[in-house]
Amino acid sequence: ALILLGGPRSALGQAQAQAPAQPDSLACPDCQPPKRFWASAGELMVVQLIPWSVSRFARDAEWAHISPKTWADNLKFPWQWDNNQFVNNQFAHPYHGSLYFNAARTNGYNFWQSAPWAFAGSLMWELFGEVWAPAPNDLANTTLGGITLGEMLFRFSSLTLDNRARGSNRVVREVGATLLNPVRGFNRLVRGEMGRISETPPDWRPSWIQASMDVGYRRLSTSSSLSEPDAQDQGFVQFSVFYGDQIADLGREPFSAFQMVGTLASRSDNQKALQELRVRGNLAARPLGSGGQRKLLAAFMTYEYISNPAVDF
Q1: What percent of the chain has pLDDT over 90?
Q2: How does residue 10 score in pLDDT terms, banded at 50, 70 and 90?
Q3: Could you give phi then psi for residue 274, rounded to 5 degrees?
Q4: Burial (Cβ within 10 Å: 0-12, 13-18, ≥19) of residue 184
Q5: Alpha-carbon distance 292 to 299, whole Å?
């Protein structure tokens, strides 16, 4: 197991401090970015058009043959529960929702202001992006899962970026942040931010961070015996991140403290590589009572994707 520990923000910035000294008077345009409504709206539409266009014209998918008639039908007839593949409903939809969320989050909107964009994008897709009847579970998964994954990916991409970095270090950081958050990477590219030297906002760094990774082998069986014919051998990588102080940061901005746990495993039969992904972030907290023993009442937002290795998805 590999464990990475980070202390206070000053310690987390040790690598940054070792970089060549920069003037203290650097501007910080990312500290208070302007809200760009039309950019957010345009990117939300592009995020919808790209997968629809691929499905419609490259794959000729039945669900993508939309028309004004299908729009009218979706507005008129009742919603129906979607029983599509597990990975599609429980991961693809939430990830798509994270792109809706980040269409606003990376254009100057905060967490709460970006949340309605995930809902709006999901509702638009359900009503106008598919031939099939809109589904309440898809709307919920895309919206709630999209908000949770979206803020996690926004903060991870912020942690990767360093506006003071130069050369190959800057290239690696910008590419990594783009892989984590494609919408943000696009925005930084078109605005010339990928190469601009400026101050890194303090809130891009958590007060504390701990990460660990375990690599190993396991054998799975649907019965109590590992010698069953359906038993499977898998290599796996399990990773976890504790972002922020899990107690002291609970009352700060949403997701100032969150936990992320995931498992990737070698594919066997019809198993997917992603076996597990769980994210749990703070929304708000308030102290209870008084005295030396501190108690908090906290609210969290959670996303869970757990693939059952004994079931063919």
Answers
A1: 74
A2: very low
A3: -80, 110
A4: buried
A5: 22
Q: What is the mean pLDDT of residues 91-114?
A: 97
Asked if residue 149 lies in contact with residue 94, where contact means CB atoms within 8 angstroms, the answer is yes
Distance of CA 69 to the CA centre of its chain: 34
Which residue shows structure tokens 């302007």?
A: 34
Look over the chain and give the mean of its residue pLDDT values, rounded to a whole number.
Answer: 88
Alpha-carbon distances of 182 from 175, 176, 298, rounded to whole Å: 10, 10, 31
**In terms of Cα–Cα distance, which of 209, 204, 164, 214 is closest to 184?**
204
- Rounded mean pLDDT, 92-111: 97
pLDDT at position 9? 52
Residue 29: CA count within 13 A, CB half-sphere: 14
Q: How far from the centroid of its chain's Cα atoms is residue 10's Cα? A: 26
DSSP helix/strand/coil, 229: coil
Cβ neighbours, 10 Å, residue 28 = 13
Any idea how long the chain is?
Answer: 313
Dihedral pair phi/psi, residue 222, rounded to 5°: -85, -5
Q: Which residue has tokens 């994954």?
A: 149
